[in-house]
Write a structure and sequence with these properties.
Helix content is about 70%, strand content about 0%. The chain is mainly alpha-helical.
Length: about 350
């Protein structure tokens, strides 16, 4: 009996010692940097996937997956094999990083509603991305699967970036969400985000159906012709262009509306500035693709800009919603700025007046 009690006491002592050791680390700060690293690596893997597609290296590892040509490390490295294999090397790394990030935010902030939503989303899209990657290898001619793979990859990037920003803003920037915004502005933000995914998918479909250069001019399909010929690649290309033009107009509208409430909601205003810059850069890259005859780097930058733009819109979706009541009611300590003065993100009279304009 004493022996059992001694063993139990020793185990309890070791666990208490482990807890004390773990408590010495600044885990919120560690999670911040883990989020930054995970976001950067996932974005690079996403861009590398675009390079695989734009260089036609999808068959670099043959039709074997997850192995490359039936080997862990292929014995012969052609250009396409090197590009595809490099992309695949990033997959296990980002898997470990994302799982660590998911576990970390659940352990530290499991009581927050945002974490209860973001953590499952990150895991789901991580798994779905892996499955679609395998399907893209097995069925490389399916434009629908390839385009969907790109769309899911963009969502995965957005969830990780937004999770990282959420961690950084805890107790500071997230308090701005307590300042209500007009329902119309919230609806516009969510509408643009959903519509962005449709435009994103159409762009990927253009690429995977080899319709990129179906139009020889920009913004019109052909010099001097307002209406393009009714040929499938041209129709696919112009459908994407018209959809992208409508998206750009709605983002301009969003920017001017967010500008009106910038005193009360600087978070939404700054995000709208990033959104406007990215959508204009995206449009410019669309023109560069045509005039450079679909150069690889023009297409890669086009894919990178839309992924970042979509991430900004997902961030705005979160900030367009108020914080959960549990987070608002919990007493918090004012944050301390660089100057040592204490800041409070509570609504001010000026802010409230700006929202009523």
């Amino acid at each position: 009996m004493r022996s059992g009690q001694t063993s139990e006491s020793a185990a309890t002592g070791r666990w208490a010692q482990t807890q004390r050791g773990l408590g010495r680390f600044n885990w919120p700060l560690i999670m911040c940097w883990l989020g930054v690293v995970t976001s950067a690596v996932l974005f690079l893997v996403h861009v590398m996937g675009s390079i695989v597609t734009d260089t036609g290296s999808q068959d670099g590892c043959g039709n074997s997956w997850p192995l490359c040509r039936g080997q862990f490390v292929p014995s012969h490295f052609a250009r396409a094999t090197l590009i595809e294999f490099t992309h695949r090397l990033g997959v296990p790394l980002i898997t470990v990083l994302m799982l660590a990030l998911i576990v970390g935010i659940v352990v530290l902030w499991r009581d927050r509603l945002e974490v209860k939503i973001l953590a499952p989303l990150m895991f789901f899209f991580l798994m779905l991305q892996a499955v679609l990657g395998g399907l893209a290898v097995k069925y490389p001619t399916s434009a629908v699967i390839l385009a969907f793979h790109f769309g899911v990859s963009s969502i995965a990037v957005a969830t990780v970036i937004v999770t990282t920003l959420f961690i950084f803003e805890l107790g500071r920037g997230d308090k701005l969400r307590d300042r209500r915004i007009p329902v119309g502005l919230r609806t516009l933000v969510w509408g643009i985000t959903i519509y962005t995914y449709i435009v994103l998918y159409l762009g990927a479909y253009v690429l995977h159906t080899n319709s990129t250069l179906a139009c020889t001019s920009w913004p019109l399909c052909a010099p001097g012709r307002l209406l393009p010929p009714n040929v499938e690649p041209v129709v696919v290309n112009m459908t994407h262009r018209v959809a992208a033009f409508v998206l750009a107009l709605t983002v301009v509208w969003l920017f001017f509306w967010a500008r009106r409430v910038r005193k009360a909601r600087p978070d939404l205003y700054m995000a709208s500035v990033f959104a406007l810059v990215l959508i204009l850069a995206q449009a410019l890259e669309g023109a560069v693709i045509v005039f450079s005859h679909a150069s690889v780097w023009a297409e890669v930058m086009h894919s990178a800009f839309i992924a970042l733009f979509f991430s900004v819109m997902v961030y705005m979706c979160m900030h367009a919603l108020p914080r959960p009541a549990s987070a608002r009611n919990r007493p918090t300590t004012p944050t301390t700025g660089a100057s040592g003065t204490k800041k409070n993100a509570g609504p001010s009279r000026t802010a409230t007046a700006a929202l009523r304009q």
